[in-house]
Amino acid sequence: MNPLHNTELDLNLLPVFDALIRVGNVSRAAEELAMSQSAVSHALKRLRLFFGDPLFMKTGGGMQPTPKALELRAPVLAVMGTVRGELLVREGFDAAVAHRTFSLCLTDMGELIFLPRLITRLRETAPGCTLRTLQVPMRQIPGVLESGEADLALGSLHAVPEGLFQQQLFTRSFVTIVNRRNRRIGEQIPLDQFLEMEHIVVSLSGRREDGYDAIIDQLAGQRRVYLTTPHFLTVPMIIEQNPDLIATVPRELATKFAGYKSVRMVETPVSVPPFAIRQHWHPRFHHDAANSWLRKLVKDVFDTLPE
């Protein structure tokens, strides 16, 4: 920081820096701050002038922070976290009149199964708020939550990152999906046939041992895994074109897939314990009024899901 300009920094500019470093987009930052894009651009111009650095550069992937901006990131986010968590919390959060963007770490499965319900409830209770979803590698989730880039991470994290708060939303079971044209598989699939067939495993990390259904290998023995992918939504299309492949996925997802008529469900021939879906958040935002309101909304939505 240029010491000659220390007394000239307008602290009202910090929320603009905070929003830009988190969302990397002027229009989304303006929406979150309830400002016009021109006002955000003007604030960024003043920040650049004060720090003597471009701070953010336009690229195909959005506004990328410069090394100077990355240097400023931690202290600015710490200040904003204190303001949100210890000062503004006293003012509460009025969802009916609030204007902000909530960001959620979700898998593609979460977007398909759970996001529509969240959108419906959010539009009813907070009409001025919007949503943004992120698909973040598991190892990066604590940092994304700590920085405020995401408000919550929703899903089944096999190894909950240390230091995060968590709340269980519900538990769900697994089921196996197969191609409808595969006549070798009857109404049930015996364990020996299950182990002989080639499997698709979904793993967000790309490693087989981190797959959602990794416990099957512990209970039934090693399967013949042909494909490991981080995406749930490609699985039914792959099975449709490759009838000899099968996959074990959460039951809600299999029900959605079965609606496309190319795959059907059979019970997995292994007694797999239910897995828990939880919401996770960082301690910095535990007392943040908006974050607290969002967590309650998410919990209420999932409490109404059918068993």
CATH topology of the largest domain: the name is: D-Maltodextrin-Binding Protein, domain 2
User: How many H/I helical runs?
Assistant: 12
CATH class of the largest domain: Alpha Beta
Strand order of the biggest β-sheet: 4-3-5-12-6
Low-confidence stretches: 1-6
Number of domains: 3
* Radius of gyration (Å): 23 Å
The portion of residues forming beta strands comes to 15-25%
The assigned CATH architecture of the largest domain is: 3-Layer(aba) Sandwich
Beta-strand segment tally = 12
Question: Residue-averaged pLDDT, rounded?
Answer: 85
Could you give the distance between the termini?
56 Å
Major sheet, described briefly?
5 strands, mixed
Task: Please trace the helix and strand order, writing H or E for each element.
Answer: HHHEEHEHHEHEEEHEHEHEHEEH
Look at the structure and name the CATH superfamily of the largest domain. Periplasmic binding protein-like II
C-alpha geometry: elongated
* Oligomeric state of the chains present here: single chain
The assigned structural class equals: alpha/beta
| Share of helix, binned | 25-40%
Q: What do these coordinates show?
A:
By secondary structure, the protein is α/β, with parallel strands linked by helices. It folds into three domains: 3-91, Arc Repressor Mutant, subunit A (Orthogonal Bundle), CATH 1.10.10.10; 101-166 and 278-303, 3-Layer(aba) Sandwich (D-Maltodextrin-Binding Protein, domain 2); 174-273, Periplasmic binding protein-like II (D-Maltodextrin-Binding Protein, domain 2), CATH 3.40.190.10. The protein contains twelve helices and twelve strands. The chain has helices at residues 14-23, 26-33, 37-51, 67-87, 108-113, 115-125, 141-147, 191-196, 215-220, 235-241, 251-258, 289-303; strands at residues 56-59, 62-65, 101-105, 130-134, 152-155, 165-172, 174-179, 198-202, 224-229, 245-250, 263-266, 275-281. α1 packs across α4.
